[in-house]
Amino acid sequence: MKTINNEQILDTIYDLADMAGLRIDEFLLKVEEEFGEQPESLEGLPENIVAELTSARELKKEARRQSRLKQSEDETANQVKLFREFFPEASPEDIPESVWEEVSNGVPLAHAYALYTITQDSMDRYAQDVNERNLQKSAPAESDGSTEPIFTKEEVEKMSGRDIKNNYKNILKAMKGWRFN
Fold it and tell me: What's the rounded mean pLDDT across residues 112-125?
């Protein structure tokens, strides 16, 4: 016997509702009305047996509901645990709305956030590449006629304290052109 997954079951229910010309909530109510209690199977039984069977059915229904709820809570806890393992530095405030939308559509939190970070990193790299190409193509900045030296980051790191003090203003000007990663 072939097993089917929840997605296949849901697709079938949506198809049946569509064929019946009903919204999914209307269709589910109709199914529950028709098949929920099955009172004809209780005809002819003593009243106390009918009450006991009805109570047992309600308890079984509640147990299934509780089981689904517990399963959903466990799944959510596992998603949060996995997210924290992969992204320990991220807080809920760091998660953008687009990620939460993906999660509401059934995508696991860790997967949705990973895709978001990969996409953001890719867009950041692209912007950085464009900025570097534009910087190379742009005209050099106008000079004010001064012959003050422009220091690189490496040159400043090799300077003594006295040299840094003597060239402090020029170092500050040079720092404006440095890239910090």
Answer: 92
